[in-house]
Structure formats: structure tokens, C-alpha cells
């Protein structure tokens, strides 16, 4: 039963990660990390596919091995945060909500930037 639940969560988070690639404000990488974790408990096939995927696999391996994020991923993530924040500012008029989003996105951005970059020899 645990395996089935883990598999359901793995596919759920994979779906959210894919949606996050196209929808501003919805993160991609955290959902892919959750997908990897749940797939390791529920589906060896999905887990292997994620880690062997040409673009997703490299991100997951860098995180698993080094807790590192590539410079390209950092730049893209920060640009998406800025774009998402701009969309939110255009959509919301509640000043408290805008302040909360700004603080949250700033913390996320600083966290991303503070992560090491993978050693590529």
C-alpha cells in the first residue's frame, strides 16, 4: 500500500513540476525533488527515468550529490521569480499580500543564490 501511495504522490508532484515549467509563480524544482523522493519509494522505473533524463536528471544528480544548483538554473530561477512577482504585482492590489510575496520571493532568491555550484571538471 505504501508503494502505491508513494507512486501516486510521485506522479502528482511530477505533474505539478511540469505545470510549474509554464505557469509563473509555481516552482518546478521543488516538485521534481519531491517526485524523485517519492519515486524512490514507489517506482524504480520512474526514479531511473528521472535521473537519466537529459535535463531533469542533471539537476537532480547535482542536488543529491552536492546540494548544488548550476549557475544557469540559478539565473533562470531568479528571472522566473522576478517575472512571477511582476505578474503578482499587476494582479493583486492587497499591499499586505504583495509584501508577503516580495519577502517570500526574496528569501527564495537568496537561498538559491547561496547554494554552491556543482564542480564540473
Structure explained in plain terms:
- The chain is mainly alpha-helical and 121 residues long.
- The protein has six helices and no strands.
- Helix 1 packs antiparallel against helix 2 and helix 2 runs antiparallel to helix 3 (44-52).
- The protein is globular and about 45 Å long.
Structural class: mainly alpha
- DSSP strand (E) fraction? under 5%
Taking all residues together, what is the mean pLDDT?
89
Radius of gyration: 16 Å
Number of strands: 0
Question: What kind of oligomer do you see?
Answer: single chain
**Helix and strand run:** HHHHHH
Instruction: Describe the sheet with the most strands.
Output: none
Distance between the termini: 43 Å
Instruction: Indicate the low-confidence ranges by residue numbers.
Output: none
Shape: globular
**Helix amount, in percent?**
over 70%
Number of helices: 6
What does the secondary structure layout of this molecule look like, with pairings?
Layout lengths: L1 H19 L8 H14 L1 H9 L3 H11 L4 H21 L3 H20 L7
Question: What's a quick, concise take on this entry?
Answer:
The chain has helices at 2-20, 29-42, 44-52, 56-66, 71-91, 95-114. It is an all-alpha fold. Helix 2 (29-42) packs antiparallel against helix 3 (44-52) and helix 3 (44-52) packs across helix 4 (56-66).
